[in-house]
Design a protein that fits this description.
about 110 residues; elongated; mainly alpha; 5 helices
């Protein structure tokens, strides 16, 4: 899927206007601090804003804004990894509880 089409698809969600505003600020503001602040605010929208951050990273010429984008992308990656680990732990706990319950039933049946 083309990145622009994917971006438009993601922008259809409820946060799309705010993400678009922050992306435009991060891309075109005259103040570098305002650009970095916009990138930091984009992190709040998680993976929904990843493409916007990557777009800003691709066009900016300022090293500090690029670094803010890279940090944001790394942060989103860690967040996603942490969520996956958490979900796996929950799944293991549920499987363990289910197996334990099944074993109790087997013991009672004997």
């Amino acid at each position: 899927m083309n990145a622009n089409i994917l971006m438009l698809t993601l922008m259809e969600s409820g946060n799309s206007n705010r993400i678009r505003e922050l992306k435009l600020t991060a891309k075109w503001s005259a103040d570098n601090n305002e650009k970095k602040k916009a990138v930091l605010q984009l992190i709040r929208y998680g993976n929904e804003a990843r493409l916007a951050i990557e777009e800003v990273l691709g066009i900016t010429v300022y090293d500090d804004v690029k670094q803010a984008c890279l940090n944001a992308i790394k942060s989103l990656g860690r967040e996603q990894k942490d969520r996956a680990v958490h979900n796996e732990k929950i799944a293991k706990t549920k499987r363990f509880a289910k197996v334990k319950k099944q074993n109790k039933k087997k013991k009672r049946a004997k």
